[in-house]
Amino acid sequence: MRVSGEPLALSCLSDSPETPRGPFCVPDAVGRGVYPGVMASVPASPEPPSEPPELRNVLLTDALQTQDVAAVAFALRHGPTVVPIVRDDDGEGDPDGAIWTYRDPATAQNVLLLFSDAAHRPETLPVGLALLSPGALRTFLAVQGDEISTVFFDVAGPHPMQASPADIIAALDA
Hints:
Layout: E1 26-27, E2 33-34, H1 58-66, H2 69-78, E3 81-86, E4 98-99, E5 101-103, E6 110-114, E7 128-132, H3 134-144, E8 148-153, E9 161-163, H4 165-173
Helix pairs in contact: 1-2, 2-4, 3-4
């Protein structure tokens, strides 16, 4: 017998819980008969988690703290990187946003800013943030690398580093 609102389960009990049917029928914790090996249903969470994912890469934070180039390369290959993004408000282009680069007015060169943690983003940066996978970072640098002069990690600190786009591509490919 199924109670309204309960998930449908494979039951082996007759109308009376005291008289199970079949040799493999065992009562569960509620007294319903179930066959061994049948998964119990788990009620879905009533609401999704309200907190957005953390925008950070702990491996990258630790590598930058020690200024270890090999550890930075490892962290880039094995975790996401926090990137600044700008969203297009007029509905054109990528709805998730595009990676933002800083254009130095004095030299007219583009600089890519990457962060190990959203907390290291300068307050004056007028853009949003997103996590970028190692593969997506590699693709972005392969396409845009000729237009980017430098890649800065945690430019506002606490442990900034810089590299060329070619060095980052080499680190991702290693």
